[in-house]
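User: Here's a chain of 262 residues. Predict its fold as tokens.
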Amino acid sequence: MIVIKYGGHALDQSVANDQIIAAIARFHGEGRKVLLVHGGGPAIDAELVTHHIETTTISGYRVTTPEVLEVVQRTLSGEVLRDLTNRFIAHGVNAVGLSSGDGNTLRATRFKPIVDGEQVDIGLVGEAQNVDPTFLNLLLSNGYLPVISPIAVQINGEALNMNADIAAGSIAGALDADEVLFITDVPGILRDWPDPGSLINEITLSELQRIESTFTGGMAPKVKAVVTALKSGAKQARIIDGRSASNLASALHGQGGTVITA
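Assistant: Prediction complete.
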């Protein structure tokens, strides 16, 4: 089975968005087990501007105050999740929209990244504490396509904003996925971000871990997600530029982007 993470910036390309959903729907229609985790950064940014709420990012993670979390949860588990689920249904897919905490799937704890050697408090941001794939396997084995928002929940019921790359990696590992495919707005893992000429075509997990600390900005969570997925059970990861539907078609046939093997 394949876990697909559909990035927020790739989602912002409306024409490619329709084509990519159609391509995933066709792939699922061939009898493949598919689970999709979505982002939604641009949609969140637009809502925050509308409500005059300021936000910042640290090391690729959004600093999440209670005020920001309210907008993030409403946007991701409401607007974006429903729109994607409805689009899949329009293509004849039996899609089910969920948040990552539903069905005891993912329980999270507060996440504090290490920046310049020090742990930094970035607010109501989560990382996976435990992932139970039972409910998702039930859906997948019965032909459903789960569409998952990365809003996580702690054991006390408090919601946390979880980076969608990290959520996808954690879920893919728990499902022992054949591949976790990150559809984003970059061509793959760039050794020298943001230089496209530094694209890494293929790398092993051990090689990636040796250089993991050198990645910054939005590339850092992607690399962390890949490492999480492969260390916890996924067999392979791939990162592609999803602003072109042809890239996805190639990826679904095992080509393109950066491939990371366990």
